[in-house]
Amino acid sequence: MSSEGAPPLDVLDAVAQRVLWLAVRMVDSANRDRQNTDGLKVGGHQASSASMVGIMTALWFRHLNAADRVAVKPHASPVFHAIQYLMGNLDRSYLTRLRSFGGIQAYPSRTKDPDHVDFSTGSVGLGAAAPLFAGVVRRYVDAHFGGRSDARFIGILGDAELDEGSVWEAIADPATEGLGNVMWVVDFNRQSLDRVVPGIRIQQWRAQFDAAGWHVKEVKYGHRMRAAFALPGGDVLRHWIDRMPNEQYQSLFALTGAELRERFVEGAPHELGAFVRQFDDVELRSIVTDLGGHDILALLEAFDECDAEKSRPSVVFAYTVKGWGLPTAGDPRNHSSLLTAEQIDDLRRATGLGLDDEWDRFDPTSPEGILAVQRRELLTRPVTAPAPAITVPMSTISKPSSRPQSTQEAFGRILVDLTRDEAVAPYLVTTAPDVATSTNLAGFINRVGVFTPEPHRAWNADPVLKWAEGPTGQHIELGISEMNLFLLLGQLGLSWDLSDQPLLSIGTVYDPFVLRGLDAFVYSAYSGARFVLAGTPSGVTLAPEGGAHQSSITPSVGLEMPGVTLLEPAYAAALDWLLCDALASIGAGAEADSRAHAERGAYYFRLTTRPIDQAPFEAARERIGDAVLRRQVIAGAYRLRDAFEHSPELAEAKGTPLVTIVAVGAVLPEALAAADELADEGIAAHIVELTSSDRLFRAWQRTLRQAVRTASTPSIPGALRAAFPDRTPIVTVHDASSHHLAWMGSALGVACVPLGVDSFGQSGTIEDLYAVHDLQSGSIVNAALAALSLS
Ligand SMILES: Cc1ncc(C[n+]2csc(CCOP(=O)(O)OP(=O)(O)O)c2C)c(N)n1
Ligand SMILES: [Mg+2]
């Protein structure tokens, strides 16, 4: 939308003033009007909000269309909601409920705010990257499923967010290149939380964006400043404004009169002093503090210029004043300072409001009121029919393989099998940060190709890996940035909303480096994204790779993170059931069953490259039957081996001690060997494979919480009862921190000896490392004896 034909400037300025008032008053009310019951300061960011008022008024009251998607700087949440209120999208009652329970969230939240938020923000540096990756996803969706309505993906960010590496990782990745529909607007107020940002950073930022192929636009000077530049000799003013260090410039805001004049010319060429003598003190102040980021027309022109850039993303540096229009403007300590009651009264008066109408919307017959209604109508998104469910089969493996195999290998094969399923294949999309081949995506990539917006010629004819690049490819390759992996997965996992197209998105990463992208992982889960993650290989089981590559705390990340389900099966067929079930849940339509709905989110598979014998699983299959076993595998646990069925002589002997070995993933062979050794000693050991500690833990917690809330006796959840029908002491065995499963003793009410990896590993063979970490069968036997002696 062009700045031509924009609403009259005085109307936009009046809107901006009202937005400023409401945003500031919302924070004020939260802190002053609300009864404080817990002694905590409620807080809020009036100065950070004020800084953004011009930018956001220009966007919502003129520039945006219904299809556009915007990430709002976390600390401008009050501005966003004030705008939604003025347009009629938010009930008035919320204005006094900022930062209250069930009210407006401190930072924009997709899942918790009452009005429609496109991107959650809060952890600085991620809100900017999210719309960039949403743009990547839209390009993919357009190429595969036909063009959606034109949308611009916009991020409004604080300037100090540019200190976060995630921003630069995002723009440096070739996958984000060339997105003409992405625009970032930097609220360039030269202040962070603690301080005025030292020096002048703009040249550096500009060069970095330039180098990444972005179009860079500065909106630096307001119209009063530009008028002064145009006067004879005005160049000297312009040069000085451009050269002055941030700290000196910012200090002007605290000054008036002769003091301001003196400070302004300090260090400047002497012609400047002469040039500014033509302005009186008040004029001089209004000129030197007149920055373009509060000049709505200048902003609209800049946004138009960015729209015209069709083949590369744009960034607008909007020079602003933190605390614009407030007595705290430009104060280095204004980040979380609050206006006094008197200052609020002054602002109310300056906005033309009184106590009786301070929360009102515009009079609907006023030019501002008419504009607000027009904008609401224009920005209302058409309701689209929910996408039908993607039909994912219950399994892909028709014939069980008897040869030893690893879960990572099985994972790669299952994806290849899924490409042969016409109902599933079109929706599959994978991504990896330069580890596609080493995480077994090569077979998938060979069949579907790599996504690039334009076809690329393949220069190498690799007989093993066909890296065919073009717009039909279904793998998005990233450079080595785990932050980018999780940001992209997060946006792929929201494509059903942000691009009206459900996808079955799968990312792979070496398990230890899940932690490298953890904040973005949390961000994506918090945003409600649905995707599959394979962390592979994992644990000390990738033995020769050594301590730097061995993960031990990742299962706890998977278990403890809301919106993420951790799954760590040991056997190929169990992985197949779980992966198909996860994809079915992700692809489920609006009418999906309640379990899928309750859990829909991300599924984190922790896999390994250790080939293990599949026969024990096939034996369990024979014993239990596919239907029941599948149910148990999906619920989180099943009895892999029944001690007495396996060794009937133990059942016949009187008083046979009984123990249960609870094992996860790669260590199953050691658990089985330990059970054999125990049987030789006359001790019966059941083996339970945990396929999802997460689901079991949650089932246990659900029953406990239910009991806590209703003051009743907790029951043992079905999933635990099915896998642990006998009350026996237990040993838990896991190639991960022993703490991860230590809760199981409490859950079952039995003695528990947890074995796991509690120190950094080193290079070696699996045998060497399992010996160091007490994961060998002999240690498991001893742990079983210890557990028996404890009970
Ligand atoms: C990852 C992360 N680290 C630290 C913070 C705490 N924090 C909130 S705002 C802020 C400074 C932001 O400055 P800027 O982006 O320039 O925004 P402004 O308030 O100036 O508009 C900091 C450090 C955070 N929210 N997220
Ligand atoms: Mg700032």
Structural class: alpha/beta
Which molecules are bound in this entry? thiamine diphosphate, magnesium ion
- Rg, please? 31 Å
Number of helices: 33
* Uncertain stretches of 5 or more adjacent residues: 593-597
Q: Would you kindly provide a brief summary of this structure?
A:
The protein contains 33 helices and 18 strands.
Question: Could you explain how this protein is built, in words?
Answer:
There is one protein chain. The radius of gyration is 31 Å and the shape is elongated. The protein has a six-stranded parallel beta sheet, with helices on both faces. The protein has a five-stranded parallel beta sheet with strand order 1-2-3-5-4, with helices on both faces. A five-stranded mixed beta sheet has the order 14-16-15-17-18. It is α/β, with parallel strands linked by helices and 791 residues long. The chain has 33 helices and 18 strands. Helix 2 (46-63) crosses helix 13 and helix 10 crosses helix 12. The longest helix is centred in the N-terminal third of the chain and has 24 residues, at 9-32. Helix content is 43%, strand content 11%. The structure holds thiamine diphosphate (TPP) and magnesium ion. The site of magnesium ion has 7 residues, from loops.
